[in-house]
Amino acid sequence: MKKIVLPLLALLFLLPLLWMVSVSLQPPERGLGRGLLEFPEGFHPENYGEAVRHMGAFSTQLANTLLLTAFSIVGQLFCCGLAGYAFARMRFRGRDALFLMVLATMMLPPQVLAIPQYMLYRHLGLIDTFWPLILPTFLGGAPFFIFLFRQYFLSLPEELTEAARLDGCGPLRTFVHVLLPLSRPVIGAVTIFTFLATWNDFWAPLIYLNSEHNQTLTLGLTAFTQAYRVAVEWLMAGTSIVLAPCLIVYFLAQKVFLRGIRLKGAKG
User: Fold this and answer.
1) Highest mean pLDDT range out of 105-109, 122-126, 151-155, 188-192?
2) DSSP codes, 137-205
3) Domain co-membership, 28 together with 148
4) CATH code for the domain of 242
5) Which of 42, 175, 235, 250 is the most exposed place for a label (fewest CB within 10 A)?
6) Is residue 267 in some structural domain?
7) Within a 10 A sphere around the Cβ of 24, how many other Cβ atoms?
8) Please, what is the end-to-end C-alpha distance for the chain in angstroms?
9) Are 134 and 92 in the same domain?
């Protein structure tokens, strides 16, 4: 039964993606004029070139997105890894209560914090810079990623930490040289989650980035949508270009991703 149901469900979820690619290859003004499951009328890859040309400073937008994504990944791994290690291996008063407070912040939607955060960054003079998008990953991280690291570190044998302590390693050296090399699955999962979230992020860049030279791909695609509402083929081609790296990264690293989210440590 699973061999029948799962492919059907996969096809159902793939239909929007297939439709997008099909429309992006249609001739001009024919993108929405054909059925959902019909093949393109001809083959028009020049739509992708037109989409890149009309998105504006595509190379600048791509460089900005790559820069933000890279720094966000480093920040999340650094901050969440250290916090997860502290909650899993270090003993201090109020540890469990503090961890519950960290998890409780997951219930706060980002829209609730948007106004006070914007006022804070405006007071610091950081509006229209990349700092409001990078600093939160280094100074706070994501509670869900902290939870993933903590659970993974709890699943590792306690003897590893004890052996490192007997060899003279402090907490930081134990984290860097013992536990972190064994944490490739959770590192891969956090990296993929952060990559997808940062690459596709529209809310934060829209709020904090005003200058054209600071735009990301999502902002460039939005500006393209507003300027070329009729060119559906170009719009779908631009969307395919922005979406392609996410699909490539996921399919290349899906084994590491699945290993990372199948955490064994269910200790409290």
Assistant:
1) 122-126
2) HHHT--HHHHHHHHHHHHHS-HHHHHHHHHTT--HHHHIIIIIGGG-HHHHHHHHHHHHHHHHT--HHH
3) no
4) 1.10.3720.10
5) 42
6) no
7) 24
8) 37
9) yes
Backbone torsions φ then ψ of 57, nearest 5 degrees: -80, 75
The one-letter amino acid at 144 = F
CA 248 to chain CA centroid, Å, is 13
**Do 114 and 8 lie in a common domain?**
no
Question: What is the CA angle 260-264-267, rounded to 5?
Answer: 125
Q: Are 229 and 125 part of one and the same domain?
A: yes
Distance CA 16, CA 19 (A): 5
**Residues 158-163: contacts with CB under 8 Å, at least 24 apart:** 161/89
Instruction: Count CA within 13 A, CB hemisphere, residue 200.
Output: 13
The predicted model scores a pTM of 0.85
Alpha-carbon distance of 215 to 58, in angstroms, equals 9
In tens, the pLDDT along 96-141 reads 899 999 999 888 888 888 899 999 999 999 999 999 999 999 987 7
Domain range for 123 is: 46-261
d(CA 154, CA 84) in angstroms, rounded, equals 9
